[in-house]
Design brief:
Shape: elongated
CATH topology of the largest domain: Beta-galactosidase, Chain A, domain 5
Number of helices: 1
Strand content: over 45%
Order of helices and strands: EEEEEEEHEEEEEEEEEEEE
Structural class: mainly beta
Largest sheet: 10 strands, antiparallel
Length: 238
């Protein structure tokens, strides 16, 4: 297979007769794309890192060739994430939050992440960057509206709600009727099906690309007409 809202949300949402997309800050669904009947409802990014790794862009700015949004990776209670040490005494459940401030805190470096979306011929390039501590598990989750089919380099699967598949390498094309969206290349750095703190998609069909930090990776997203004869995208369309 060849390569193929809220009031405080900032977004970039152009549209063509058969194609529309969104890049947004302030929500976890940083990117989405609809091409005809094929719909990539959300691209989300999450790292398993002290409860601060679910990407929610806080800045939204134009850069050369695209849009960049940033997740600074700040902690819940302090500017930096970190580890709360045991208090050394019993604490009732209803007092956990109050007792947290009495516990010794060891900060760790934030895991800062950027997503840069650039429009290219036939679709988009999504560049994901993450830096901080090394070897932190991270995932790119591509959630599709169910009802289509996913074709891989060496297989195919029906897009059923609640189902998850890893894209280990190469490209995958999700198609509904004659409409198709291609993503890739895949990666397989870990086998975490339900990453802690990540938002789940029980009503969607999820394709995972698994990585570890540091990350500087570009995911290609292309759309066009599906060919059952070649099992690929015939051409890009507006």
């Amino acid at each position: 297979m060849t390569p193929c809202s809220r009031s405080w949300m900032a977004g970039w949402r152009p549209s063509f007769p058969r194609r529309s997309w969104t890049v947004a800050s302030g929500i976890s669904a940083a990117f989405s794309l609809k091409f005809g009947e094929a719909e990539l409802t959300a691209v989300t990014i999450c790292a398993s890192y002290y409860g601060t790794g679910q990407f929610v862009g806080e800045n939204f700015r134009r850069v050369d060739g695209g849009i960049r949004i940033t997740h600074p990776g700040r902690g819940w209670h302090y500017d930096s994430p970190g580890y709360f040490h045991p208090l050394g005494e019993p604490v009732a459940q209803e007092q956990w939050e109050e007792a947290r401030w009495k516990r010794r805190f060891t900060p760790v470096p934030p895991l800062a992440m950027d997503l840069t979306a650039s429009e290219v011929e036939g679709g988009f390039d999504l560049r994901v960057q993450a830096e901080g501590l090394d070897r932190v598990p991270l995932q790119i989750a591509c959630d599709f509206a169910p009802g289509g089919e996913l074709d891989l380099n060496s297989g195919a699967i029906q897009g059923i709600a609640g189902q998850t598949v890893f894209l280990k390498s190469g490209y995958a094309i999700y198609h509904v009727g004659d409409d198709a969206i291609c993503i890739g290349p895949g990666a397989y750095a870990h086998r975490t099906w339900n990453m802690r703190w990540s938002e789940q998609a029980p009503d969607g069909f999820r394709v995972l690309i698994s990585l570890v930090s540091p990350v500087d990776r570009t995911m290609e997203v292309r759309c066009g007409a599906w060919s059952a004869a070649t099992e690929g995208i015939l051409k890009s369309e507006e």
